[in-house]
Amino acid sequence: MSPARWVCLDLDGTLLRDDHVDGVVRAVSERLAERFGVDAEALAAANETAWWEYWTEVGDSWLRGQIDPESLPTEVWRRALATVGVTDAAAAAEAHALHTTTESTALRLYDESAEVLRRLSERGVPTALITNGPSGLQRAKLRATGIEDAFDVVIVSGEHGVHKPDPAIFALALSGLGATASETLHVGDDLVADVGGARGAGMRPVWIDRGTAAELPAERPETVVNDLRELYGLLGLD
Predict the structure, then answer these.
(1) 67 pLDDT band (50/70/90 cuts)?
(2) Would the keyword Hydrolase be found if you checked this record's keyword annotation (predicted)?
């Protein structure tokens, strides 16, 4: 197979580490526990439960940008705090603000991410970012990690009303790049949203296996990498 000519990349779990999430929730829960005199572990557990329960209700709308992006995390903290007996209406907003501040200082790129983006740019390989989430949240991550200007095209689901794995979001990136799907890699860590979505759009899916998958796929994708530098070979840059 000939080398690919264009590259699309996922953000969370691909370029940006997402192993900080539990630590942020614990840190925020500890601060809130001191503030309101509740059990920190119970609050952190309640947050996880509330997240998954509320996500099933509004997650799709949140990713599409159809609801206030602040409403989901605020409601999650409201439910979690209520579980441990804190029902003050202002407490949830306070918790969300604390969460946002704490997370902003915890964001980290994977070790090779900046290097790979820089080399692709230097070698003239057009790139697009395709990320699921609200506009403000995802673009804040790009600014915080210094890669806001690293892409030729940035597609955020909340700005377009469509999210991975819908082929339509991949089509937006391809159109922005002026790319041919069959000559474009899409690199991501999610087997459904990234690998399945890219395959459905006619692209060349690349699964980046960071060793964090909850369970291994029954059938491994055709192209698997463990480090983004392995893309060089797929692009003929070795």
Answers:
(1) very high
(2) yes
- Alpha-carbon gap, residue 231 to 112, rounded angstroms: 11
Q: What is the pLDDT of residues 123-176, one digit of tens each?
A: 999 999 999 999 999 999 999 999 999 999 999 999 999 999 999 999 999 999
> Domain range for residue 50?
21-104
Average pLDDT in the 175-182 region?
98
Determine, yes or no, domain membership for 1: no
Compute and round to an integer the Cα radius of gyration of the chain: 19
Average confidence (pLDDT) over 61-84: 96
d(CA 10, CA 193): 10
CATH classification of the domain holding 185: 3.40.50.1000
**For 196, left (φ over 0), alpha (ψ -120 to 50), or beta?**
alpha
Answer yes or no: do 220 and 128 share one domain: yes
Contact 75, 90 (CB under 8 A): no
How long, in residues, is the chain?
Answer: 238
- Phi then psi for residue 144, to 5 deg, are -65, -30
| Number of helices followed by number of strands (H, E) in the chain | 10, 6
Q: What is the pLDDT at residue 212?
A: 74
DSSP label at 109? Answer: B
In order, the DSSP letters of 26-78 are HHHHHHHHHHHT--HHHHHHHHHHHHHHHHHHHHHHHHTT-S-TTHHHHHHHH
Confidence label for 76 from pLDDT (cuts 50, 70 and 90): very high
Q: Which pair of structure tokens corresponds to residue 133?
A: 């989430």
- DSSP-derived secondary structure letter, 192: I
**DSSP 3-state assignment of 169?**
helix
